[in-house]
Amino acid sequence: MSGTTTRQLSDIAVTGSALAGTTSATALPVSRYSKEQLVQQGITSTEQALAQIPALSTSTGAGAATGTAILGGARFASLRSLPSDFTLVLLNGKRLPLEPFNGGAAVDINQIPFAAIERVEVLRDGASALYGSDAVAGVINFITKKNLQGGDVALQYGIRPEDGGGNQRFLSGTWGKGDLEEDRYNILATFNYRRQDAVSARGQDFVVDRDLRRGIDATSSFPIPASYRVGQNLYNPAAPDCGGRLLSASGDNCRFNYQQYGNIVTPSDQFSLYTDGTYKIADNHEVSLSYLYSANDSTDIGAPGLTSNTVGLSPQSPFFPGNAQGPAVPDADMFDPDNEVPLYYRNAGLGPRVTENENRYHHAVLTFDGRFERVDYNTAFTFNQGDTEIAYAGGYFNPGQLGALFNNGTVNPFTRFDDLTQAERSAIGDTQSTGTVTDNRFREYVWDGQLSRELGDWFGGGQVAMALGSQYRHQLFEVSRNGGLLTQVAGSGGGLSPADPVSETRDIGSLYSELNVPLIDSLEVTGSFRYDNYDDVGDTVNPKVTLRYQPFEQLVLRGSYAEGFAAPTLSDLYDPASTTFTTVLNDPRYCDEQGNPLGGAPANSCNFQFNRQNGGNADLDPQTSKSWTLGLVATPIERMDIGVSFWWIQIKDQVSALSPSYVLDNAGQFADNIVRNPDTDAIDLIRTPNFNLGSTYTNGVDFTFDYVLPTKSFGSFALQFNGTLTNKYEFQSIPDGEYISAEGRYAVATDQVVPDWKHLIRLSWVRGPVFANVTNNFFSGYDDFDPTLNPEVNDYTTFDVSTGYRFDSGIELLLGSRNIFDQDPVFSNQPSVGFRGYNASYSDPLGRTVFGRVSYEF
């Protein structure tokens, strides 16, 4: 028939489609980033690579740990600023091990073998109809090198010249042998090692301990020398002459500057090994086996441990107020010389709390694929395992033993840190408790199979193509806690609580289909659906429809509608409770807006670090979503591409945990979440378990622009622009509750910021063996946590530059600088994300780094 076309399914898979090589791929908003492009910017990690994509953000990044929480060293990626469990991360289209400590819902991107990557594909659209749960916001697919002959080695070193520390080392090697067409086999092996040195928070201008005028008080009521409580008041014998970098005065009390300890950049060692072997059984049939091992070791440093209302000073102690070696009796009517006084003590004699995190991942895939007659097939068996082990390495102590030292006269709690004798330091050292405290494991067995073929030209527009697939997954989630050790250190600030072992399993069976139908030469529709059955939370069917219209060669119009489903993870449901500390907060029942105590206020009510309890919730409901996209890709002139993509996402019954500050601000609504002491009415605990918050709605626009300008005399120039405008981001803290906006402002309920605008602009130049790049990253400002004291967080923009030379021998030299103008993080008075004075999820604390790289390709 005249005007028809015949297409054959190709071997090139496209992220977001089960039909390889069809033009339906261009109906999907997929962005591609080459490894070469990333390397030229000095990027050596997956976290750095994903930071280059405006639609993406990474969470739990550098500088987020101050000793108030244990993070496990993981890094996660999220699209559209939605939680990371709504973004599916794949390696060659296959699921990777989930990180088991931080919710067991997302992939730790540290495990990705950066040296083996050829490109990154980012699908900025819902894909639950193809991939199932956790593909609500989109998919990130890391594609490794294929059929490589030869290899390369690379060495990169980066320094942070201004403030010292923060140096980076990177070593990688890749080797491939065999040609699939000629030799019928190919073997690939890669490794990479990356070391990130620490950067201390001390001495950083953007880390602010106390600035009441702008809304920051990052000091604690647990100092050294100790404070003691009488009635509603705290007294410290050093006051009012507290002095020193660790203390600040507050009436009759001294407060501890806990931010003088800790790192704005966490030290880490990352190693990964990836191997892949492929054998061509016959002309149209291949078998391959791949294996990934990844290890990431990191160390979190927090302020010294504190007594947390667990230690009291007996009247028989020589250091009791009024006794021979104790402070003077306070001028307080409520002082009772016959009863012990509670001590508020920072155990600085042990040094900072040191938590060591070990993450280990295994990912093995056995794949058979090929073609029988007109049918393409693919089947794979996948094994995933993620292990996270957390150990207390220093600074954690037994409060009962420490209290005994105070009461038997061995250690004077009212001695300044610098004045502690060697005998006192030695005695304090004997109270230390170290060892492994928790071991979390996620294991998954996956089988999937898929058939696809062309069905003929139904409407004269081209070949109809169809895919059918099924999948089975068995998941195991295990948690083991060292109850004895955790009981010993309870109250010293460890963040984990003793709990019974957890061992939970889940089975998931799935069926899916995709059909691509060209209606006419320029118009095609693709429909897909997926049926998932979870043996613990029920079943669901999720459809997706995409349209692609190309009225003429230079313009493609596209749109989609998709429904999604995200089951609560095994960790969401069963993760044991953990108790940690909030940042410094105020009890609204007893404190005014400035944090001053009101009449009758318990002593530990204002500017206080309360206990916070997190954990799973077996009564959670699944999360559902709907999403829409509408966009175009235009080529107005040769070598120029312009893209615009509108997107809308709505999620219902979103699973998350409220922030403690939001619970306190809405104490009437969350009265059951605030546990008070029956005698004093002081807050003993703030409960923030997982639960279904309500709905989230967000929409915006993605913009892309790519232009290449070749010249005869001056080489070739390329301009790339990627920008994301978030028009709306609203969520409910409870079902059917009031919508709260996080777009362009700090959302207190989730400690979240969604910038109105983010963009990346890159200008590249190549002339023969010489090349150079300039990259601009931009984040728009937003309304701060407390806008009455700091109305707006300023825009944040950085520039990266690099230049290099390729020799004919295969050697390449690269020099450059990231954040070349050393832009410090912009000021924010947010109280919950890392250190005070800036927002670690918005600004990069590393500052300027200068790097050099040498590589050899053979």
From TrEMBL:
Pfam families from the UniProt entry: Plug, TonB_dep_Rec_b-barrel
Keywords: Cell outer membrane, Membrane, TonB box, Transmembrane, Transmembrane beta strand, Transport
GO cellular component: cell outer membrane
Family annotation (CDD domains): ligand_gated_channel
Domain TonB-dependent receptor plug: 25-139
Coiled-coil annotated residue ranges, if any: none
Protein's membrane topology: Multi-pass membrane protein
Residue ranges occupied by any TonB-dependent receptor-like beta-barrel domain in the UniProt entry: 351-819
Cell compartments where the protein resides: Cell outer membrane
Superkingdom, natural source: Bacteria
PROSITE patterns: TONB_DEPENDENT_REC_3
Similarity comment: Belongs to the TonB-dependent receptor family.
The name this protein goes by in its record: TonB system transporter
Organism expressing this protein natively: Salinisphaera japonica YTM-1
